[in-house]
Design brief:
- The protein is of the alpha+beta class.
- It folds into four domains: 48-100, no CATH class; 103-156; 160-232, Single Sheet (Resuscitation-promoting factor rpfb fold); 235-321, RlpA-like domain (Barwin-like endoglucanases, Beta Barrel).
- It has helices at residues 2-47, 122-128, 299-304; strands at residues 60-64, 71-77, 80-86, 94-99, 103-108, 111-116, 138-140, 152-156, 158-169, 173-182, 186-190, 195-206, 209-222, 227-234, 237-248, 254-256, 264-269, 275-279, 282-283, 293-298, 315-321.
- Strands 18-17-21-15-20-16-19 form a seven-stranded mixed beta sheet.
- The longest helix has 46 residues, at 2-47.
Length: 323
């Protein structure tokens, strides 16, 4: 009975040892396999030859059975990079690693472009795909910003242009009194001439649409020339009389004892030198004026002569003026 019991214990111990040994062996093989896989992936990244300005993506891995030949190689097709490693020294055989470049959407003004690139920064992505950026163009994100997969790159095409516009400057009309020219006459001494001004604007267009218009320079290329007209002020006296100017209750009346209606008179108050010009609108007709009286004037006109109201009226000099 005791022998049978010892045999069973020995059998159980053997079975437990076998199970323990098998499990440790399996774990060791799994750790070795994991190590080999990581090593092969690292080798694939190295063989893919990513430059310092490129970003390696996570590859898609296909494992192969152990081969008889050692083959290391890489290829580029359609923008993607494929690395193949077969080495009989590795118990897992080999791998084929495919690196796919990130995809970008470029919104270039009215165009939409889909591109792929491993480049790290936006400017390199654009340059690699033949997208030329002018100095004034705006790029979002910026040219030096880090590129990210499936990111939109927006380009605003900016055009700055200087546009000139001609503007006419009007001339001024001036009148100058001329005492050498008879009163009532006019003569043009200088004809007027318009000037010219050039306005320079900076026009900004974004994607072909004008967004601003700024005046940056203003230059007068030709000054305007004033029109000058001489106005005659010279008085030509045809005849004259002296006497009193009496008052009449008629409104705005200039009643002359010596000149007919329509005659232009220069009337001077000899007491104070005040002079006015008036046109005869009434006469005495067949009646005779009082002695020494040459004019009969309304009170408003006597006020213009600064008559002080003393005596029968101011003593005046009446001159017939050529019209």
């Amino acid at each position: 009975m005791i022998k049978i019991l010892k045999s069973k214990i020995f059998l159980i111990a053997c079975i437990s040892f076998c199970i323990f040994f098998y499990l440790n062996l399996a774990n060791a093989q799994e750790e070795s396999r994991s190590y080999d896989q990581n090593f092969l992936v690292g080798r694939a990244v190295s063989l893919a030859n990513f430059g310092p300005d490129e970003e390696a993506t996570v590859p898609q891995i296909m494992y192969t059975l152990p081969g008889e030949k050692k083959i290391h190689g890489s290829s580029i097709s359609g923008g993607q990079r494929t690395v193949t490693i077969f080495d009989p020294n590795f118990g897992l055989g080999g791998i084929q690693a495919v690196f796919y470049p990130p995809e970008f959407t470029i919104l270039d003004a009215s165009r939409t472009i889909k591109v792929k690139s491993f480049k790290r920064v936006v400017g390199d992505v654009l340059q690699e795909n033949g997208v030329v950026i002018a100095k004034e163009d705006q790029v979002v994100p910026g040219l030096r910003d880090t590129a990210k997969a499936t990111q939109e790159i927006k380009i605003t095409r900016v055009e700055l242009a200087e546009v000139e516009k001609n503007e006419t400057l009007p001339y001024q009309s001036k009148e100058i009194d001329d005492d050498t020219l008879e009163r009532g006459k006019k003569t043009v001494k200088q004809e007027g001439k318009t000037g010219k001004k050039v306005l320079t604007y900076q026009v900004r267009r974004e994607n072909g649409v004008e967004v601003s218009n700024k005046l940056i320079k203003e230059e007068i290329t030709e000054k305007p020339k004033d029109k000058i007209t001489l106005i005659g002020t010279k008085v030509v006296v045809l005849s004259s009389v002296r006497g009193y100017a009496t008052a009449t209750n008629r409104s705005d009346a200039v009643v002359s004892a010596n000149y007919k209606r329509g005659t232009l008179l220069r009337i001077t108050n000899l007491a104070n030198g005040k002079t006015i010009l008036k046109t005869v609108n009434y006469t005495w007709g067949v009646a005779s004026p009082p002695d020494g009286v040459v004019l009969d004037l309304s009170w408003s006109i006597l006020d213009e002569l600064k008559f002080n109201g003393n005596d029968k009226g101011p003593v005046v000099l009446v001159e017939e003026i050529k019209q």
